[in-house]
UniProtKB/TrEMBL annotation:
It holds the Pfam family BPD_transp_2. It is found in: Cell membrane. This is Branched-chain amino acid ABC transporter permease. Keywords: Amino-acid transport, Cell membrane, Membrane, Transmembrane, Transmembrane helix, Transport. It is a multi-pass membrane protein. The chain crosses the membrane at residues 64-89, 101-119, 148-165, 194-217, 229-256, 263-284. Belongs to the binding-protein-dependent transport system permease family. LivHM subfamily.
Length: 294
């Protein structure tokens, strides 16, 4: 029983990490039509920004509020980088999807190479707070506290995104701009500013995933964002390319399948199981789990 509880909570923690990355991807593609292959680089920037802040900024150590300040710094850096990329590189390429793919793929390679050139390719230990390394007993299982941190953060992000899109003026403008951009522009509303905000929010979620992923994995490396991005794309496809709630459901499925398959079969089988899950969904529901059946 304790093993099942531990695997379930750990799988949900991994699912939360995948969702934090996938939510930004789903938001940017669903509302802007941009397939952002540089999203993993935002995760890497957030992770290294948090690590650098904890090592160099006063008051941003691994304890309590200091760690929160370091995470806020990493998220802020990821947000600013994402906003600048949208303004300088993505905005001129709306409706030009091939060019978008080429630019974001090249940008992803360039940003990861820049991080590797500055801090090296070797993994670096991540300064997690002491309470995150402790465990909590749940039905006889000793569960690391960082799992609960990830799950709680993912729930907050999900609720915040849904509330933002439904109840705020910017959310209404964004949804209207997606449906009919020319009409919204004719009404005197600057859709471009709203789209920049969406891209920045997506970058913030990826940067947050980088910071919390460092806590979960115990270390960070330049290629970490790329590996997590692969599973995030799988989550987005399974859940439906433009559905935040679909991404949340798909992340739970992927995280649990991966954890249980790795434990009960063999290490690495979890990845294969996720790919098989993706294939089954594409064959039975090509539009994802949230797609309407005709």
């Amino acid at each position: 029983m304790s093993t099942i509880v531990l695997l379930t909570v750990t799988g949900l923690g991994l699912a939360a990490l995948y969702f934090l990355v996938a939510s930004g991807l789903s938001l940017i593609f669903g509302l802007m039509g941009v397939l952002n292959f540089a999203h993993g680089a935002f995760l890497t920037i957030g992770a290294y920004g948090t690590w650098w802040a904890s090592e160099n900024l006063p008051g941003a150590g691994s304890g309590g509020w200091g760690f929160a300040f370091a995470v806020a710094f990493g998220v802020a850096v990821g947000t600013v980088v994402a906003a600048l990329i949208e303004l300088l590189l993505i905005r001129p390429l709306y409706e030009r999807h091939i060019e978008q793919v080429l630019v974001t793929v090249g940008l992803s390679l360039a940003l990861v190479a820049l991080v590797r050139a500055i801090w090296g390719a070797d993994p670096r230990p991540f300064p997690a707070p002491a309470w995150a390394k402790d465990t909590t007993s749940v039905l006889g299982a000793s569960v690391p506290n960082d799992r609960f941190l990830l799950i709680g953060s993912a729930v907050v992000v999900l609720l915040a995104v849904l509330a933002f899109l439904r109840y705020t003026r910017f959310g209404l403008v964004i949804r209207a701009g997606v449906e009919n951009r020319s009409m919204v522009t004719a009404l005197g509303i600057d859709v471009r500013r709203a789209f920049t905000l969406v891209f920045a929010i997506g970058g913030a979620f990826a940067a947050l995933a980088g910071a919390l992923g460092g806590v979960y994995l115990g270390s960070i490396s330049p290629g970490q964002g790329t590996s997590l991005l692969i599973f995030a794309f799988i989550v987005v496809v399974i859940g439906g390319m433009s559905s935040i709630t679909g991404a949340a459901v798909a992340a739970v499925l992927v995280g649990l399948v991966q954890q249980f398959a790795n434990y009960y079969a063999a290490s690495g089988v979890g990845d294969l199981s996720v790919v098989l899950l993706l294939a089954v969904v594409l064959l039975t529901r090509p539009g994802g789990l949230t797609a309407r059946v005709a």
